[in-house]
Request: fold
Amino acid sequence: MSTPVETLEFQAEARQLLQLMVHSIYSNKDIFLRELISNASDALDKLRIGALVDKDLDADIDDLHIEIEADREQRTLVVRDNGIGMSRDEVVGLIGTIAKSGTAEMLRQLKESQDAAASKDLIGQFGVGFYSTFMVADRVTLLTRKAGEAAGTRWESAGEGTYTISDAPDAPQGTTVTVHLKPKDEEDSLFDYTDEWKIREIVKKYSDFIAWPIRMTVERPGGEGEEATTEVVTLNSMKALWARPKSEVSEEEYKEFYKHVSHDWTDPLETIQMKAEGTFEYEALLFLPSQAPFDLFQRDARRGVQLYVKRVFIMDDCQELMPEYLRFVKGVVDAQDLSLNISREILQQDRQIQLMRRRLVKKVLATVKDLMTAEDDTKYRTFWREFGRAVKEGLLNDFENQRAILDISSFASTADAEKLTTLAQYVERMKDGQEEIYYMTGESRSMIENSPHMEAFQAKGYEVLLLTDPVDEVWVESVREYDGRKLQSIAKGQVDLAAADAEGKADDAERDQRKEEFAPLLGWLTEQLTEQVKEVRLSTRLTTSPACLVSDANDMTPTLEKMYRAMGQEGPKIKRILELNPEHPLVTGLRSAYGERADDPALPETAELLYGTALLAEGGELTDPARFARLLADRLARTL
Reply:
């Protein structure tokens, strides 16, 4: 006997959402199958839990699974599970109504969004995955029976504002969703959702690690003179490596999984596995690559780890779980308590996501520290060579982990031309009486080592860190000290090695006398070079060069100034300080000449040449190279 069919209307917001779905605002239509499989997986989970809690539950739990059935001729795709199922009231409540708050605001944002990725996130935000079937369907039929109940329910809709519902006495336990596919269009000309390869592709990408088997009956062509046969295949691996103890997973399995998630053909440098239990549970399987990707420093590079919720793939490159300076870390994070349809907007504000991020970052940095302190530090040296420049970006904005980043950082140093050094190692080697960690930034090691600024440090045996990465110019401005020792640029501010030298203090009276002797020359040079420098003073950092240019303690370095200009950020030109070596014959000769004939017209040219040679010695650019070359040629001619 036929059962009466009742026609009901969707809730107003649901009707609006259906219209948006039908008109395909969401470009990635593959998501509909992910949503149906996720719903089926949830139904199986609920039945398993229900059977454990209620020993009297009349339900078959012997072979819990998900089944996909495709019919090209009928243009239908069926997703079936034998899970918990739904009662009639649950069908009306869960499918006919959007019960989540904020739906009206979501619909407004969806209508205004012109970005496909943003549309995807907004749809996912409100848990409306079932409605995504109407992106590909003319009609959807749902047949369900709740475990333990005798009769089932049949639901059907074309997504046009109404749906029909009726009793289904013979419905099997669980839920069957039949998607009556739209006719193929030009957009989908390369595939059909009934194609076996397309179904396999979607399952592999989104649902491979679901704990329940996803099965499909496929046809295999027979040989010559033989009939075609059918077989039931399982489409998903059900192998969530991150959920298995490390002792049960082979290195080869980890390597293959890394290549799958990273699209890298090399083996990973290190595997990181962690599990958090308690009020908020998640599992993570992360990898440090063995080589940097070609796009590591490109703005549009892929970054972030994959996010799963209960083994269901949610999104690639989840940037909210890993800071930008660790963008090279690959892997999977599987959370147990997040919504399956969480969006990027919610991720940025979610307290649990922030907590996960903090723990993941600390684990990654701790792993690198372990590589550094290992008896064989080959892996660490490889890591730092490939990713050190990116990691140092964290010194600019991750203040919580700034010390940890400094601890794992290595730098070139004058102590060893072949080997990098850590800050801790530098501190251990500091001379008695030395209070500061000396460094200098520059374009290359050779340029720094040959800089006039290095002369006194080399002569007195003080170690200097040689910082040549562009990011070094920036982070040293925000990191003031390490282990209580101030970081001091040897090209900025006042540097008095005599005062730091425990072997002998400089004679203050002698220095004061020298300043008094040179005061007239310094004042005259400051006036002559007023367009180029803010001050001319005597130097304690020079031993062989006549002069050098230094920045004031709080001023921007020329290299950093140049970097900002390259980014289109023009600022006022910063004048520097010209320091003179009072022991150099050119400087002592200039002092004598100025004292004897202050009005000599050749003296201003000498001042100009002195400034120019100091600028060239540090790799700077002359404002008027032709004039400098002419002055130098004339001066050389007079000596012949």
